[in-house]
Amino acid sequence: MTNGNRGGQADGRKKLGAWGERLAATHLESRGYAIIARNWRCRHGEIDLIAQAGELVLFVEVKTRRGRDMGAPEEGLTPAKSRKLIALAETYMAEHDLDADWRIDLVAVELDKSGKLMRCEHIPNAVLGW
Length: 130
Prior knowledge:
alpha+beta; Trna Endonuclease, Chain: A, domain 1
């Protein structure tokens, strides 16, 4: 495999991830959530989507998978990733001087090997323990 091929695979994953994030945002909006930020970045990393429902702030991790070779989308939310998301959420709340309830959700997007959408599932409180 050449570096060009690896770059192509990375580009494909990036495009798939961006597509999954757009689908997740549309899914959440159709359920009454307002998307207030996409791909918010700070020194700790990035939050895919930030949404709001009334006074509640949702930090949303989107995991998109084509097939099950890499496991189900939920399996990508590891303990290390969960700790990182908590740090990101706390940073966002502090930087925006927000004193509101918040939670970390997951949107699992799964396609079959041919690219057909199998599910787009919103999982509230995917990260607990804070």
